[in-house]
Amino acid sequence: MENIAVRALRTEDIDSIVSIYSAIVKKPVDPAFRQSILHHAQKHDGGCCVAERNGKVVGFLISYTLVLGFGLETSAWIAILGVDPTFMGMGIGDKMVDETFAYYKAKGINLIYSTVQWDTSDLLSFFKTQGFEKSNHINLKKDL
Q1: In order of start, what are the domains of the chain with their CATH numbers?
Q2: How far are the Cα atoms of 33, 52, 134 from residue 143, in angstroms, in the given order?
Q3: Number of Cβ atoms within 10 Å of the Cβ of 42
Q4: How, if at all, do strands 56-66 and 75-83 pair?
């Protein structure tokens, strides 16, 4: 897509990211979400990025590195990815994922994971087009 630039996440992107995420989930965003984005922005580690179109943030990707895991070598995890609904389907997510793959590959990290809900077929389909497949891990949860 023309006029799309992917760059590292900055603290001044938080309001735009919150706005995009709110538009996606169609409800107000929990303040903890804002704090989490701030935490990632302050790390300046390059694993998080935004997509801009004509200077306006239209997408975001938050990822992190996991050094310790149950039997996992050092890996990267895409925690969340969002594109402004107005711009979905235009390849913005693809560009952010490509940049993220390149970043981690340059760091020598060869495994990237993500978790999606089983009933989010659009997101599952997106990740499949990016080359993701089922892993040999099972997500576990406990309600408290």
Answers
A1: 4-129 (3.40.630.30)
A2: 20, 38, 24
A3: 11
A4: antiparallel
- Nearest-angstrom CA–CA distance, 81 and 59: 8
CA 59 to chain centre: 9
Grade residue 87 by pLDDT with cuts at 50, 70 and 90.
very high
Look at residues 48, 60, 55 and name the one whose alpha carbon lies nearest to residue 17.
Answer: 60
Task: Identify which has the larger pLDDT, 62 or 142.
Answer: 62
- Residue 132: its pLDDT value, please? 82
Q: What does the DSSP 8-state code read for residue 72? A: P
For residue range 23-49, list pLDDT tens digits in order: 999 999 999 999 999 999 998 777 999
pLDDT digits (tens, 9 = 90+) for 122-132: 888 888 888 88
Cα–Cα distance measured from residue 47 to residue 64, given in angstroms and rounded to the nearest whole number: 6
DSSP-assigned letters across all residues of 22-52: HHHHTSPPPHHHHHHHHHHHHH--SS-EEEE
